[in-house]
Amino acid sequence: MSEPMIPLGVAVLTVSDTRTEDTDRSGQALVERATSAGHRLVDKRIVVDDIYQIRAVVSAWIADPEVQVIISTGGTGFTGRDSTPEAMSVLFDKRIEGFGERFRLLSGEEIGSSTIQSRCLAGLANATVIFCLPGSTGACRTGWDGILAEQLDSRHKPCNFANLVIPERGQHG
């Protein structure tokens, strides 16, 4: 990879009824991985597992030209308040169908059949790519290391999502 990587503006959202900045290991792991890869952290928030509060934060980020990538952690399971897929999916212009499949394939190597309880998903909205990961720190590491690191690297071939959200590349929209 001889060309330089183009840093992206990243926002990280932790969806949790119990976590605080001091106890949010998953959100912090995503921040550390994104910034270590050379991306810029634009914002990081924790919001309770409420469809409308999630949508409010994410909608504002989608409208913000500084945010090119949104990564959420939490709320993708089947418990009563898990509502990230319901909150996010209506915001997508296009859904990234293979993301959940690829994540569950990678995760299955680590946690076996329990991976089917993840409703992780991804999509594009207003030239912003959005990835919704499970709430465990291990799942965040799996998602970043196995998918996001390459897909957010503008040098990754044959294709990547970075080139879809970099305005000067002319391939977004």
Structural class by helix and strand composition? alpha/beta
Return the CATH class: Alpha Beta
Instruction: Tell me the CATH superfamily.
Output: MoaB/Mog-like domain
Give the number of helices.
6
Average pLDDT level: 93
Order of helices and strands: EHEHEHEHEEHH
Q: Widest sheet: strand order?
A: 2-1-3-6-5-4
Tally of DSSP β-strands: 6
The fraction of residues in strands falls at 15-25%
Second-tier CATH architecture: 3-Layer(aba) Sandwich
Please estimate the helix content: 25-40%
Task: Using the CA coordinates, give the radius of gyration.
Answer: 15 Å
What is the terminal-to-terminal distance?
Answer: 26 Å
Describe the structure.
By secondary structure, the protein is an alpha/beta fold. The chain has one domain: 3-Layer(aba) Sandwich (Molybdenum Cofactor Biosythetic Enzyme, Chain A). Helices cover 38% and strands 19% of the residues. A 6-stranded mixed beta sheet has the order 2-1-3-6-5-4, sandwiched between helices. α4 packs across α5 (137-151). The chain is globular. Pathway: Cofactor biosynthesis; molybdopterin biosynthesis. One of its GO terms (biological process) is Mo-molybdopterin cofactor biosynthetic process. Belongs to the MoaB/Mog family. May be involved in the biosynthesis of molybdopterin.
